[in-house]
Amino acid sequence: MDRGAKEDGRGGTRIVPVILSGGAGTRLWPLSRPGRPKQLLPLAEARTMLQLTLARLACLPEAAPPIIVAAESDAAEIGRQAAEAGVAPAALILEPVARNTAPAIALAALSAEPDDLLLVMPSDHVIARPEALADAVRAAAPLAAEGWLVTFGVPATAPETGYGYIRRGASLAPGVEAAAAFVEKPAIEVATALVASGDHAWNSGIFLFRAATILDALREFAPQVRDGAAAALAGGSRDGEAIRPDTAVFGRSPSISIDYAVMERAQHIAVAAADMGWSDVGSFEALYRIVARDGAGNSCEGDVLALGARDCLIRGEGVTVAAIDVEGLVIVATADAVLVARRESSQRVSEAARLLKERD
Amino acid sequence: MDRGAKEDGRGGTRIVPVILSGGAGTRLWPLSRPGRPKQLLPLAEARTMLQLTLARLACLPEAAPPIIVAAESDAAEIGRQAAEAGVAPAALILEPVARNTAPAIALAALSAEPDDLLLVMPSDHVIARPEALADAVRAAAPLAAEGWLVTFGVPATAPETGYGYIRRGASLAPGVEAAAAFVEKPAIEVATALVASGDHAWNSGIFLFRAATILDALREFAPQVRDGAAAALAGGSRDGEAIRPDTAVFGRSPSISIDYAVMERAQHIAVAAADMGWSDVGSFEALYRIVARDGAGNSCEGDVLALGARDCLIRGEGVTVAAIDVEGLVIVATADAVLVARRESSQRVSEAARLLKERD
């Protein structure tokens, strides 16, 4: 392949990473907050999740500079973190309000060339083996260029109830199969059966498709999303790499995920296998599993004294934390809020955050 | 009895409460701190432990205004809390440094009349039935006037290893016996045997004796304590009710408890039974046992969300606390420090506080 010809920005099958950084999760409360979303925090190591995502692009040197889609309110911090990571985005699309992934991807697709292959990546996942993702991207790129909507599937090794599952169908290319069915957040019995079946993969939320293909699919399955994004860009402004859609127009866009709007409905969905050491870091339990732990099974950060504590995730953010003889807990202390939860109850953290917000 | 004659401050068997408020415990860290000792905190209810102690004096209306012995650094706060409680102390003895209870009692005894009966009370205990203490004081007063050193004993109902035990000997008066032996903080096997024996009481740390008697005992068993206190008062100053011993002189006093200096050595020690609902609130477990709890067994104060939590003591001091599915924990969050401990490990809290202090 002649990379040079593909990197000139005109046609071809140029790969353009699209980093989705607009989320504002509550599942890692009180670390993540409105205004301090998970992807902008250094959760798994010294660099933030966004910076790790940007650094991952080094495994795909043939890719063009990325498009980042983020919240307008995070613009300055995103710019700072990208610069620190040594990445100059081709575009920084600043959403005036969050409208989930389908409108965000529509904005990116409309800002790219029709033939660009958009490699859509959440900015708040951990990928331990990015080269496996890069290999899968290369394996899937010809299919994407042909008009397939490619999702990257992770070997389902445990009956996770918080993930989406994809059933793998007919082989399309080495490591790439047609997606036969989607199952979103199954009950534990169903999840156990899916894992046992051996033909299901976790949906990583990473996608590869032509800009024109996804826009066509949006036109078919979610026309308000496509048209709303187009109108918001037409009425918006551009300042250097910063693109600001019109606030009122974009605010009227439906709030919907790309999975629900397109992937679970469209034809020609492919799933590319990527055994990439993936975690969505979607809970403190998930974070606990991927971080380094000491001999007592604790992962401590900040000014922490663990006295007889075992198998705990402990974070003291500017606050001293002493944990005595406790086991299997998540303890997160910030200047104004403290979480103490059983690790196995990590999924209830967003419930707690919501209840506290309602109470305020 | 002619109370009027006894309250004129000249001789007789006037009862003068002596409130010891100089402690700076670490067993309730991070609630209690240097500069924020336990007795000045509202732990068991809205009033502070010192205020509860002062309010308790209402059960003994024949008593004279109290002498308070406290740290110089707490002078303003003590004055504020006493005024709020409507108590005007006869004297506020301000220790420049803490030297444990024997020197504090020596200062008070030297500031009283020789025949005054000093009712020495720690300021950081809870007494649910103060009238039972008042009855015991009245029962023991004649013996104290005769020269007995009276300690108040609480029925030992559980094998507590953090308490001192007193073996009750020959009867001296109804409800008052000679103390036959002291056992300080026994091992659990010993404590179990002492409780089973039926003739041991917990040492409440509350005492009644003539000022002259305790000074004589100190002269015999701890002359440096008595002479040091006398010299410190002679070289010190008095400003209204505030008495300030000389810093350098008092600083040279031995640091020793009245139990160790006198009560465990002297003759004529009596123990008066007082089933007064006593707790020394010496640990978070002890605090948990005396506070009101909700249907899930939790005691929550501050901005606390207990989601599936059970049997926990939770305190959020200016900090939001969410506890999810945890059981039997102490969770204490302050602006700069957080404690999470198993309730049964409450005794290790001071160890944690010490380790953290060493680390600083």
Quick structural overview:
Two copies of one chain form a homodimer. The first copy, chain A, is α/β, with parallel strands linked by helices and about 350 residues long.
Could you tell me the mean pLDDT of chain A?
Answer: 93
Report the end-to-end length of chain A measured between terminal Cα atoms.
Answer: 58 Å
Q: Segments of chain A where pLDDT lies below 50 for 5+ residues?
A: 1-11
How many E strands of chain A?
19
Mind describing the biggest β-sheet of chain A?
5 strands, mixed, barrel
Percent in helix of chain A: 25-40%
* Radius of gyration of chain A, whole Å: 21 Å
Strand order of the largest sheet of chain A: 6-9-7-8-12
Biggest interface, chains and residues, is: A-B, 35 and 35 residues
The outline of chain A comes out as globular
Q: In percent, how much strand structure appears in the residues of chain A?
A: 25-35%
Oligomer: homodimer
Class from helix and strand fractions of chain A: alpha/beta
Number of helices, where a helix is a run of at least 4 consecutive DSSP H or I residues of chain A: 12
Describe the structure.
The structure is a homodimer of 360-residue chains. In chain A, 53% of the residues are buried. The first copy, chain A, is 31% helix and 28% strand. Chain A contains 12 helices and 19 strands. The first copy, chain A, has helices at residues 3-6, 49-56, 75-84, 101-111, 130-145, 188-197, 211-221, 223-234, 247-251, 258-263, 284-290, 349-359; strands at residues 15-21, 67-71, 91-95, 117-122, 126-127, 149-155, 164-173, 176-184, 200-210, 237-239, 242-244, 269-273, 278-279, 299-301, 304-307, 313-316, 320-324, 329-333, 337-342. Mean pLDDT of chain A is 93; it is low at 1-11. The longest helix of chain A is centred in the middle third of the chain and has 16 residues, at 130-145. With 360 residues, chain A is α/β, with parallel strands linked by helices. The first copy, chain A, has a 5-stranded mixed β-barrel with strand order 6-9-7-8-12. In chain A, strands 14-16-18-19 form a 4-stranded mixed sheet, with helices on one face. The A-B interface holds A 29-30, 305, 307-308, 316, 319-326, 329, 331, 333, 335-342, 344-345, 348-349, 351-353, 355-356, 359 and B 29-30, 305, 307-308, 316, 319-326, 329, 331, 333, 335-342, 344-345, 348-349, 351-353, 355-356, 359. β19 of chain A pairs parallel with β17 of chain B.
